[in-house]
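Quick one: structure tokens for this chain, please?
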Amino acid sequence: MRQPLGRREFVKTSLTAAGLPLASTWWPAFAHAKRLAGGPAMRTAYDPAAKFDLKVTETEFRRAASGRMLMARVYQPQGVGPFPTLLDLHGGAWNNKDRGANEPMDRAVAASGVLVVAVDLTLAPEAPYPASVQDGNYGVRWLKARAAEWNGDAANLGVLGSSSGGHVAELLGMRPRDPRYNAIPLAGGAKVDATVAYVATRSPISDTVARYQQAEKMKRESMINNNKTYFRPWETISESNPQGILDRREPVTLPPLLIMQGALDDNVLPAVQEKFAASYRAAGGECELSVFEGCEHEWVAKPGPQTDRAHEMVKAFIARSLAGRRAS
């Protein structure tokens, strides 16, 4: 008497009938076939230890008010997917740098099976605050609308921000529905929510006022000028201060937050991050603060064990955040 086929044997028999391979690629091929047929793909939980080849492309993001075309760099894992999706926002004291500023981190995270998209932001000489935050808010909605084109699943989209990009990322997480930040309509008129599932940061400017006071104390004229170029009118340095927002007890959204901070950073002080992390937790949010001994403000720009540790920390944080979303 013929025994009933088990689940794996049944799938393999079905694949043989369909002319699909039975080697180590049989399950990805089956999942891909299900997606092409319109059925739901069997999604595997994100594994931060996974390794994927990458396809890196560039596409137009949006045109800034200055007329400059802002670009996006897409790091697409080559596999079945769909992959969790992450938007990267560059640093540069609001005045310089672009989508390539965080490339080593972007590549490391993407290679573990995350669709990572890094976008240019409007620079302060082109337009002051809140222009770059508007770019970030638009970027969240734009990527949610387009992630599927690059085999991404944007249901639990996260944001990664470094230094001033961390400031933007914190504002996006805390104020996703702020009408000032939502000012740029999404192409095609689609209505997409700008909330994010989690925020990961490296050396974020969590207290803009304290950061400016530190620049004055250190007599760093270039940093002083960067602040004065970005915060126009000047009172916006307080209005857009993440620490001040919490101190004023404004209504906020508090997604899980990761802060990676260099112990030797004399630009954004570790004590400032400790205060912000404590305030974030007191307001009801989850905040992980990790201090990297022997590291300055931009330690991740140089290869080394502490840079590798930062890459692994971001991947582990993404995994925990996604697992938490599934469990809730």
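The CA atoms of residues 34 and 229 lie 52 Å apart.
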